[in-house]
Design a protein that fits this description.
- The chain has ten helices and twelve strands.
- The protein has 277 residues and is an alpha/beta fold.
- It binds NADP nicotinamide-adenine-dinucleotide phosphate.
């Protein structure tokens, strides 16, 4: 399968390139806001499938940078999907658990209706809808709290701050299912190979709080850090996040693929072994 990945420098993009022996394009190669350049790249490579791993991921900054978040997460993915649809090329795009709001207390399946709380969440939801409207065969994968060895993510941030400070406050009343970029890439490639379409949830098979996740990171890194739980309202981030956004991977289960991703703890342990942390 000839695979073309936009956003090849990102956490997920670089894993897709590695796992799928794909052609990867970075922002320097093609800025996806330049749709002529996107189209030209697709015409030059003739891929069997296109993955869009680009995103405006600064959740808090998006609150004051709405236009750019909407452009990169919402409008551009729809146009990329339309370019692929016109050429009959499958298109894979990514979204987030933050399309859901505060009305959940158990794992959220693909059937539930999004109700985002933030600009970021709304821009990603706009992107989901735009992609699926433009390309009825597109695959949209929602995921959560991605981590990879070199990326900007919670695992690396905790390790850096833990070494610098020795004492940290971490939010304990928001529950998520953090997900390894490498496992996400492997499952994405399998879903594309199977020709799946529509929305899929791909996250670790259980949820945790950011506080408990930080505890595990310090334990596995053998860092002695004093952790204090803090409520999200005390933390006061500019963007509102859901209290509980653990996704249910119902569609993966139906395909028998849910066993290719472990619990958040098992996935984190594997990440530490594989990345030699
Ligand atoms: N990270 C998470 O925790 C998380 C959670 C839920 C969902 N997701 C979704 O999962 C997907 C992958 O996330 P990720 O963590 O791999 O993201 P990431 O590491 O932030 O990578 C995003 C990539 O997009 C590139 N990019 C941004 N704007 C671009 C543009 N205009 N033209 C070309 N490239 C552009 C960035 O390039 P530069 O490096 O040059 O900026 C970066 O390489 C995204 O759709 C994201 O919304 C992520």
């Amino acid at each position: 399968m000839k695979i073309l990945v936009f956003g090849a420098n990102g956490q997920l993009g670089s894993e897709l390139v590695r796992e799928g022996s794909a052609r990867g394009l970075t922002r320097e190669d093609v800025d996806v806001r330049d749709l002529k350049a996107v189209k030209k790249a697709i015409e030059q490579y003739h891929p069997d499938v296109v993955f869009n791993a680009t995103a405006y991921n600064a959740v808090d900054k998006a609150e004051s940078d709405k236009d750019e978040a909407l452009l990169v997460n919402g409008i551009v993915p729809g146009k990329m999907a339309a370019i692929c649809a016109a050429k009959n090329i499958p298109f894979v795009h990514y979204s987030t658990d933050y399309v859901f709001g505060d009305s959940h207390a158990k794992p959220i399946s693909e059937l539930e209706t999004p109700d985002p709380l933030s600009v970021y969440g709304r821009s990603k939801l706009f992107g989901e809808n735009a992609v699926l409207r433009a390309h009825p065969g597109a695959l949209v994968i929602r995921t959560t709290g991605i981590y990879s060895p070199g990326g900007q993510n919670f695992v690396n941030t905790m390790q850096r701050l833990g070494k610098e400070r020795g004492s940290l406050r971490v939010v304990s009343d928001q529950f998520v299912a953090p997900t390894s970029a490498s496992t996400l890439a492997k499952i994405s490639l399998r879903l594309a190979e199977l020709g799946e379409d529509g929305i899929f949830h791909v996250v670790s098979q259980s949820g945790t709080s950011w506080y408990e996740f930080a505890q595990a990171i310090f334990e596995l890194s053998e860092l002695d850090v004093e952790l204090q739980p803090v409520k999200a309202t005390e933390w006061g981030a500019p963007a509102r996040r859901p209290r509980y956004s653990v996704l249910d991977t119902a569609r993966l289960r139906l395909l028998g693929l849910d066993e290719s991703i472990g619990s958040w703890r098992a996935e984190l342990e594997r990440f530490f072994v594989e990345s030699g942390e």
